[in-house]
Amino acid sequence: QVQLVESGGGLVQAGGSLRLSCTASGNIFNMGAMGWYRQAPGKQRELVAAITSGGSTNYADSVKGRFTISRDNAKSTVYLQMNSLKPEDTAVYYCNVEWGEATMSPSWWEYDYWGQGTQVTVSS
User: Fold this and answer.
1) Three-state secondary-structure class, residue 26
2) DSSP 43
3) Dihedral angle sign, alpha carbons of residues 7, 120, 98, 67
4) What is the pLDDT of residues 63-106, one digit of tens each?
5) Cα-based distances in Å from 72 to 17, 54, 77, 79, 110
6) How far apart are alpha carbons 93 and 81 in whole angstroms?
């Protein structure tokens, strides 16, 4: 079992920035890719950014050029630097992890474990 703890959310004005953190613990042997998801009210959870253990990254089109994902393997922590925030970025942000060489799946329902998430609210 893996435990995921997200932090760093808050209330920010449009155009502002936030940095989210997520630390994984527990049975994380062979942990590979890490990713950030978000869920806005009334919408499906979506994958917004992912990073492999080697540092390759992928982003949803809606956040490209504004968000940057990074990781610290020694701390089992993934970060999401969010710049130029927009009201449509308002959501609860969650992280998750994969094992071995698997890539993060956009099918969020495939994951059994989730953290509590961190709320990001962007005011206009």
Assistant:
1) strand
2) S
3) negative
4) 999 999 999 999 999 999 999 999 999 999 999 999 999 999 99
5) 20, 11, 5, 8, 25
6) 12
